Amino acid sequence: MASIVKEAVIEASADDVWAVIGDFAEGPARIAPGYVVATRLAAADVRVVTFADGVVARERLIALDHAARRIVWAVIGDTVRPAHDNASFQVVAESDTRTRLVWIHDVLPDELAKSVAEAMDGGLAVIRETLSTRG
């Protein structure tokens, strides 16, 4: 199984970043506007995320740990159908005004790793820009 780890420093407090990252229902559209064009709940623990390129992912919430500022989800279908797909965000305070976002994505088959990593890079750039506090 391929495991991809990406990190970004965000110029904002961990509490502010977590307020958006930890929002399972609306978080994707809030953290990456334009990259994600729609998010809706299909059930209490399932969301449907539509990306600007037309890809649609149905995702199940696996864990939401407010104390650790960590959210875990799995892709379970729609236009994206890997054999296995599990991802997490963890928000780590580096200072009062700086946060490290750690994004881990495990996927099968391994051949999907390159396209997943590229999508993560694109998404992370938008996330960093969206969540960084502007002075």
Automatic annotation (TrEMBL):
Q: Which domain of life is it from?
A: Bacteria
Identify the CDD domains for this entry: PYR_PYL_RCAR_like (cd07821)
**InterPro entries, per the entry:** Polyketide_cyclase/dehydratase, START-like_dom_sf
Pfam families attached to this UniProt entry: Polyketide_cyc2
Membrane-spanning intervals of the chain: none
Q: Give the protein's recorded name.
A: SRPBCC family protein
Organism source for this protein? Streptomyces tendae
Lineage start:
Bacteria, Bacillati, Actinomycetota, Actinomycetes, Kitasatosporales
